[in-house]
Each structure stands twice: as C-alpha cells, then as structure tokens.
Amino acid sequence: MGILPCGASGMRREGYAMDRLSSPATRKTQPPIKVYCLPEERAEIETMARHSGHSVSTYLRLVGQGYRVTSIVDYQHVQELAKINGDLGRLGGLLKLWLTDDAKLAPYDITTMSKAIVGVLDEIRANQATIRTVMTAIVTPLAAKNLAAKNPAARDGR
Question: 71-103 burial, b if ≥16 CB within 10 A, otherwise e?
Fold first, then answer.
C-alpha cells in the first residue's frame, strides 16, 4: 500500500510489467512474415486482395491458412441481379395496373392492346435473358474455381 500524491491511499500494482508481458499476443506485436516475389506477382496478389475486399496482409494470411477467399466482384454481380429483378417486378406491376384500369383501356381496340402487351412481354423476356447472362457470368467462374479447388491434379495438368 502506498499514499497517492492526492493523499488517498491506494494499492501499488506489484509486477505490473509482468502483467503486460503475459497479456495475450496480438498480430501487431508479432514479427511479420516476409514474402519475396516478383513485381508481377506482387501486382497480382494486390489485385486479388483488392477484389476480395481485404488488405494484402489479411488476404495472404487467409489464403495461407487454407480459407477460400471470395471476391466482392461476385457480390457486385448479385447486386446487379437484384436491380434487374426489381425492374422486372416494377414492369409486371405496371402491366397489371394498366390492365385493371378500364378507363385507360377504353380508347384502345383489341389489336392495339395485344401489340402493347406483346411488347411488354418481349421487354420482360429481354430482361430475363440479361439475368441469365449475368448469372452465367457469376456461376461459370465460381464453378471452375470450385472444381479446381476440389481437384488439384486437374489444375496442375496431371
């Protein structure tokens, strides 16, 4: 026990330095691992890290521990699909609203309405084709990556 400068008594922490040494280690306090690589390899690693949304250090640590790092580019494709899907939903809602309003349909004859409906359905089909294209852009590379990860012999050309 000791007296603090303000006059209050307090306990002196014995072995304070030992408490700091026995605290759990953090990554920042540990020595780094150096990786020697060519400038092209470094650029590729940095690009892959950026595409995965991680720093180079985190990316290399995850890959070194055997994690399959996913690309945020895939998530951007998924967001694009969500936007296209929303467009299709709005288009279908507008078609439904238009078909249920008798006052708006009165001036049109059957052939004009048929042409308009066919045109809207063609737009919906075009949007669906866009969705399929984007889905293929997402699924095909992911399937190839997964296949290569499952079968290293095929990736190495054996």
Answer: beebeebeeebeebeeebeeeeeebeeeeeeee
| Pair 12, 1: CB distance under 8 Å | yes
State the Cα angle at 4 between 10 and 13, rounded to 5°.
45
Q: Copy the structure tokens of residue 70.
A: 């996913």
Nearest C-alpha neighbor of 68 from the set 142, 158, 153: 142
Closest-CA residue to 137 (of 62, 90, 84):
84
Distances (CA, A) of 105 to 91, 121, 122: 18, 18, 20
**AA identity, residue 110:** I
Coil, strand, or helix at residue 3? Answer: strand
CA distances from 53 to 83, 100, 112, 156 (A): 22, 47, 51, 27
Q: Which amino acid is at 50?
A: R
Q: pLDDT tens digits for 26-70?
A: 888 888 888 899 999 999 999 988 888 889 998 999 898 888 877
Yes or no: say if 98 and 155 are a contact pair by the CB < 8 Å rule.
no
